[in-house]
UniProtKB/TrEMBL annotation:
It comes from the Bacteria. Its EC number is 3.2.1.52. The active site is at 321 (proton donor). It catalyses: Hydrolysis of terminal non-reducing N-acetyl-D-hexosamine residues in N-acetyl-beta-D-hexosaminides. PANTHER family: BETA-HEXOSAMINIDASE (PTHR22600), BETA-N-ACETYLHEXOSAMINIDASE (PTHR22600:SF57). Residues 6-145 form the Beta-hexosaminidase bacterial type N-terminal domain. Keywords: Glycosidase, Hydrolase. This is beta-N-acetylhexosaminidase. GO terms for biological process: carbohydrate metabolic process; glycosaminoglycan metabolic process.
Length: 555
């Protein structure tokens, strides 16, 4: 039946068996084994959100007898069973006229199983209030699945433009609805610091807002303050909310470059005698803090505070686009270079990242850096390299380290989606649905060793030109839906098959309230118009790709 043919991402096995299950009020939920009792609460919550009332049972419950039509005469029975010997995110959902049997390897598998169950229902089941009638007819069948890659994520930049906690929580739900399992939060940059530190209050009072913003290098200043911050309690809530939905939230503090906001709050961290201000342009380069021991000690305290709140398994330390031009002339930095036997400033870049990674390692946390950190030696043996500067940078890092594939092309979703002049202004492009579908996370021409180091991939949304939640929706969807299938299956997608299912999937996005871009172009109210948001991108994505490849060997 078409319900089993329109799942997204496409499962490994999905087949209809004939017949239907009538889901109505009074569903019975039971644990199939003592090991799965802890999974019942999440199952019940999902069923309730789908408009059903629940009668929960923890002991043995007899399967309801079938009526003359084959459907259960009594309430449907939902059984959840934890199994061993399967991959971490494996699940199987079996629908019969009597009920639903969910088998999972653990909590993450259950998240995926419940997502698949929801996709088998009509799209209206995704609406927050449900259908109001408390009854669904679910075709019988079976779905069995597990992903190829353990890292399937999205990055949201909340530093260039701040987004409130409710937006972050909403994006956790949207990622989970597409079987992603990582949310990378870019929490600091030249334009703002988003963590309300209790140990260092100036980070909240002096680094979390800027006086003005302008759109593009030639744009006009709006002379309007912009900013915001997350308290440590907010960040703890975000992390817990993600864990409950199978999403690991990965915080990023970008150092030692992209640190104008940090230096504005604590000038002693930066170049002596230079005025440090939060940048009011949409992109700023040429910033850095000192890589010396006092600064490393300061950042270690900041990281301790963040980790105590969020308890993350990973922390991203950035390491990209750092200006090191003043380091060798600074007496304190020069002295430390001599102490460590370094002869080049870039060695201090790697030194700082390794020192903080070692500190995090002591807390049981694994560090991630952008690929510039790999070039300067800022990695430990277990450091993960997030490679954005083309295939060459990723291939080089994958010879020795685990890699998350996040190349500008085609995973930077802040770029145009087509060459249509009606597209709203963005940073270039286009990066189309076809481009995303053709992405190979582990390229076929890599060696087996390199391919084995690919953990997965993620999309990025840099928000220099993305001031609203609606703009995020427009840029991310449906491209993220396409990438979810690529990362789940581990190979480029068949566009004919995928796009046929994507048409049906748009109904789900509609029910979720996502302001996605229609497949045939933007709605009139999503277009750039003739004002400040008019599309002005010059050049082509091929030129951008050549530039990225040309700088991939540089720190």
């Amino acid at each position: 039946m078409e319900n089993y043919e329109n799942l997204l991402p496409r499962p490994t096995i999905a087949m209809a068996h004939g017949g239907n299950l009538s889901l109505r009020d009074g569903v019975i939920v039971r644990s199939g084994s003592p090991e799965s009792a802890h999974l019942m609460a999440q199952t019940i919550e999902t069923l309730v959100r789908r408009g059903l009332t629940i009668q929960a049972a923890t002991g043995s419950v007899e399967t309801p007898a079938a009526g003359p039509s084959g459907a259960a005469a009594g309430p449907a029975l939902v059984t959840v069973t934890a199994v061993t010997g399967r991959a971490e995110e494996w699940y199987r959902v079996t629908v019969t006229p009597a009920g639903i049997h969910v088998e999972v390897s653990g909590a993450q598998g259950l998240v995926h199983a419940l997502t698949t169950f929801t996709q088998l229902l009509p799209a209206d089941a995704l609406r927050l209030a449900g259908p109001g009638h408390g009854t669904w007819s679910l075709p019988c069948g079976m779905v069995e699945d597990s992903p190829v890659f353990p890292w399937r994520g999205g990055m949201l930049d909340v530093a260039r433009h701040f987004f409130p906690k409710r937006t972050v929580l909403r994006y956790i739900d949207l990622l989970a609805a597409h079987r992603f399992n990582r949310l990378h939060l870019h929490l600091s940059d030249d334009q703002g610091w988003r963590i309300a530190s209790e140990r260092f209050p100036r980070l909240a009072s002096h680094a979390s807002w800027r006086a003005s913003t302008k759109l593009g290098p030639e744009g006009e200043h709006d002379n309007t303050p912009h900013g915001g911050q997350y308290t440590l309690a907010d960040l703890a809530e975000i992390a817990a909310y993600g864990r409950a939905r199978g999403i690991v939230v990965v915080p990023e503090i970008d150092i030692p470059g992209h640190t104008s906001a940090l230096r504005a709050a604590y000038p002693d961290l930066g170049q002596p005698g230079v005025e440090h201000t939060i940048q009011d342009t949409v992109w700023a380069g040429g910033s850095s803090i000192s890589p010396t021991e006092p600064v490393i000690a300061f950042l270690a305290e900041v990281l301790d505070e963040l980790c105590e709140a969020m308890d993350p398994p990973y922390v991203h330390l950035g390491g990209d686009e750092c200006d090191m031009s003043w380091w060798e002339a600074d007496p304190a930095i020069a002295a430390e270079m001599t102490t460590h036997g370094y002869t080049q400033a870039r060695e201090m870049h790697g030194h700082m990242l390794r020192a903080l990674a070692t500190h995090l390692q002591g807390r049981g946390i694994r560090t991630i850096v952008w690929d510039e950190g790999y070039v300067t030696g800022g990695v430990l043996e277990d450091t993960i390299v997030m490679a954005w500067r083309g295939d060459n940078a990723a291939a080089r890092a994958a010879t020795t380290h685990d890699v998350i594939r996040s190349p500008l092309f085609p995973t930077y979703f802040n770029f145009d989606q087509s060459s249509d002049p009606d597209e709203p202004r963005s940073e270039g492009g286009p990066i189309t649905l076809d481009d995303v579908a053709a992405f190979a996370p582990a390229p076929a021409d890599w060696t087996p060793e390199q391919r084995s180091h690919v953990l997965g991939g993620q999309f990025q949304v840099w928000t220099e030109w993305v001031p609203t939640e609606e703009r995020i929706d427009y840029l991310v969807f449906p491209r993220a839906a396409v990438l979810s299938e690529v990362l789940w299956a581990g190979t480029p997608a068949d566009p004919t098959d995928l796009f046929a299912r994507l048409v049906r999937h748009l109904d789900r996005l509609e029910a979720l309230g996502v302001a996605y871009r229609p497949l045939d172009g933007p709605h009139p109210w999503q277009q750039g118009g003739t004002g400040v948001w008019q599309r002005t991108a010059s050049g082509t994505i091929e030129e951008t790709r050549k530039w990225v490849d040309s700088v991939s060997e540089e720190p």
